[in-house]
């Protein structure tokens, strides 16, 4: 995925084109929704008793689809005084986020726009992950975010609804968002998303194609190894790197533990994480400032 600064800049501008005076805080919240499952997945991986990583990845793949993004957006919008307008702005930014993700070269990754009716990953692969265009968009996103921050922080957060029905509706939609993915995890596995079906059936890997997004390359005397998202390490042939790097690679298994790399991209160390962390910090600070500044001032909504 492009880093969060890219999303803030591009989606901030496009939201202004299609919406009248959109609140930058809601734009940030909308573009954050598709990334929430992956952020939480990182947290779960740090736990001593981490769930099965294949199952966790499948759950996140389902939850980060357009359908589930719109579902969470609806749950959030019900807590605003203008739910329909808020849902449209959130949903617009969910869709934009996924389309921007699909535009970047993924290496076995992609987005689900048609789920739960179809689970084929969409990956246009137009732009290199850390190429000149992404660098320019990152710098633009940083400047745009800092310029939009004051106006977004000054606007008061939404007053919470008093009607119990709004809270019940939001809770029901949130429950669907959290629980329904358990019933749909077979969909992306059947399409071999993240090469999970190939990886799970180790004995049948030989001769099968696979692709890995941002795997860790570990140099060694045997030619080096790739550490996959599952934590497994496989011998990598055809990379020719001499130092530990982050790579997206496509190729074929020569044996259950030997992977022939045919095409690959080497990523700039810490670039995406740093830009994403900065973007998340800007958005979170904007919401926090707005809450603190307007605490106790906004009246309760009657709707």
Number of helices: 11
Structural class: alpha+beta
Q: Mean pLDDT, nearest integer?
A: 91
Binned strand content: 5-15%
Notes on the protein architecture:
Helix 3 (36-45) packs antiparallel against helix 4, helix 5 packs antiparallel against helix 6 and helix 7 packs parallel to helix 11. A hairpin with a 2-residue loop joins strand 4 (245-255) and strand 5 (258-267). This protein has 303 residues and is an alpha+beta fold. It has eleven helices and five strands. It has a five-stranded mixed barrel with strand order 1-2-3-5-4. The chain is globular. It is 51% helix and 13% strand. Mean pLDDT is 91; it is low at 298-303. The longest helix has 23 residues, at 132-154.
Q: How is the secondary structure organized here?
A:
Layout (H helix, E strand, L loop, with lengths): L3 H15 L5 H9 L3 H10 L7 H11 L2 H12 L5 H21 L28 H23 L9 H21 L1 H5 L5 H5 L8 E10 L6 E3 L5 E5 L7 E11 L2 E10 L3 H23 L10
Parallel strand pairs: 3-5
Antiparallel strand pairs: 1-2, 1-4, 2-3, 4-5
Helix pairs in contact: 1-2, 1-7, 2-6, 2-11, 3-4, 4-8, 5-6, 5-8, 7-11
């Amino acid at each position: 995925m492009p880093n969060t600064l890219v999303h803030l800049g591009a989606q901030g501008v496009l939201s202004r084109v299609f919406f009248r005076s959109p609140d930058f805080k809601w734009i940030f919240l909308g573009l954050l929704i598709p990334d929430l499952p992956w952020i939480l997945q990182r947290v779960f991986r740090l736990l001593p008793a981490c769930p099965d990583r294949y199952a966790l990845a499948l759950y996140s793949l389902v939850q980060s689809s357009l359908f589930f993004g719109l579902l969470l957006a609806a749950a959030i919008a019900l807590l605003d005084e203008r739910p329909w307008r808020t849902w449209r702005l959130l949903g617009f930014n969910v869709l934009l986020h996924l389309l921007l993700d699909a535009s970047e070269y993924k290496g076995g990754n992609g987005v689900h726009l048609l789920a739960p009716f179809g689970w084929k990953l969409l990956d246009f692969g137009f732009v290199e992950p850390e190429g000149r265009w992404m660098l320019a968009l990152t710098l633009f996103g940083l400047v745009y975010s800092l310029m939009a921050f004051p106006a977004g922080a000054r606007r008061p957060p939404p007053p919470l609804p008093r009607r119990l029905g709004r809270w019940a509706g939001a809770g029901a939609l949130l429950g669907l968002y959290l629980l329904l993915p358990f019933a749909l995890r077979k969909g992306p596995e059947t399409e071999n998303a993240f090469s999970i079906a190939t990886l799970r059936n180790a004995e049948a890997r030989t001769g099968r194609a696979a692709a890995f997004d941002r795997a860790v390359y570990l140099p060694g005397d045997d030619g080096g190894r790739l550490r996959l998202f599952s934590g497994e390490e496989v011998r990598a042939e055809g990379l020719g790197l001499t130092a530990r790097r982050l790579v997206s690679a496509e190729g074929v298994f020569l044996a259950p533990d030997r992977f022939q790399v045919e095409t690959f991209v080497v990523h700039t160390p810490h670039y995406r994480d740093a830009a994403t962390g900065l973007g998340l910090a800007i958005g979170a600070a904007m919401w926090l400032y707005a809450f603190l500044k307007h605490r106790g001032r906004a009246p309760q909504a009657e709707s």
